[in-house]
Amino acid sequence: MEAPRSYCGPPVDLSRPRGFSSFLSTRNYRLGGGSKWPPPSRSTPLTWRPLRCAASALPLDVSPPPIDGDPELKMAEGAALERSTAETFGDDNAAIDAAFNGVAIMDLSHFGRLRVTGEDRVHFLHNQSTANFECLTEGEGCDTVFVTATARTIDIAYAWVMKNAILFLVSPSTSNSIAEMLNKYIFYADKVEVHDITQQTCFFALIGPKSNQVMEALNLGDIVGQPYGTHRHYNVNGAPLTIGIGSILSRDGFSFMLSPASFRSVWRSLLSHGAIPMGADAWERLRVLKGRPAPGKELTKDYNVLEAGLSMAVHLDKGCYKGQETISRLITYNGVKQRLWGIKLSGQAAPGTSIMLDGKKVGVLTSYVLGRRDGDHVGLGYAKRHVSQADEVFIGDVKGTLVDVPFLSYTKL
């Protein structure tokens, strides 16, 4: 019989130990604010292993999701973790600094996770969003945008193509509406099902230039350096764990989807290797600094997918899909009239305030947060295409300068 092999990746070197029971320190781990994690149990060392199967077992679905978990257990685990880590989220500036210079971690379990199954899932999703799913294979992933028939933005999703399913991470505010929308377009003969597995799973992101070092230290270096969206399946003491390239706000970093049963142990493991926990306020600040548009702010029915700077997630040559005709016309006739910018501000400004140039309205501020340092103010906003970075604009009485942000792309305009 052929030797066991890694589920997604090169053959496993069985001569090298895959587990690591010694990476957790036996002393208390101290975080900011004086809080401590209790020492790990020596009786149940944490081990992470690739999910493997013999050649004869390959036809089976070894993709972990959906994870059969008790939602009440997840809620209890989450509440306990929130109580025990409440003091660690006090310094937003430290967490943001770690995201740019070290490594930070954010619990995104409140984001929606939709699992689409069935024989027709690839063709169905190919027609329902902007990505070319027909060119992706098992173990790959991408960003894709859900749009209306007129290419107005609903949400940008992070997708994993698994053996028997395609998994989407979507914003908390759009999870239900996207599931309803997908179900609406499933016809009687379509072999497609949409499952919401948000309550049965947990999800968090690891971001920062030292993320690779953390993964190497945890014997997870086999996924480091892989293309964006690549994901692999592991187990933690028998519980399923999927790790993907990309941290939702960046093409770098890593995303973790796992069972509620292993959430606390994995979270603690990453903290023990220097990851700084990031609260919701710090995440929102980082979102604006990175430039990722959010539903209800930058992603609304007022703006199309090209204006929102999401051209990197739009495949123009994949054939028919929802919004395709509008997108093609916008490009053919140079119909994009505005674009999304980062904005450096001289002071506080309220989202919804008009952006003015020479006394004329040229756009609107959509998000505002404090910047990386005390006294810094930044935002996101739409401005007409003739407005440039050289122009000094005003948002109310506040001066502003348009700046590029890393998440957005206008390369196809």
From TrEMBL:
UniProt keyword list: Transit peptide
Tree of life domain: Eukaryota
Family matches, as Pfam families: GCV_T
GCVT N-terminal domain location: 96-318
GO CC annotations on file: mitochondrion
InterPro entries referenced in this protein's UniProt entry, alphabetically: GcvT/YgfZ/DmdA, GcvT/YgfZ_C, GCVT_N, TrmE/GcvT-like, YgfZ/GCV_T_CS
Name of the protein this chain belongs to: GCVT N-terminal domain-containing protein
Source organism of this protein record: Ensete ventricosum
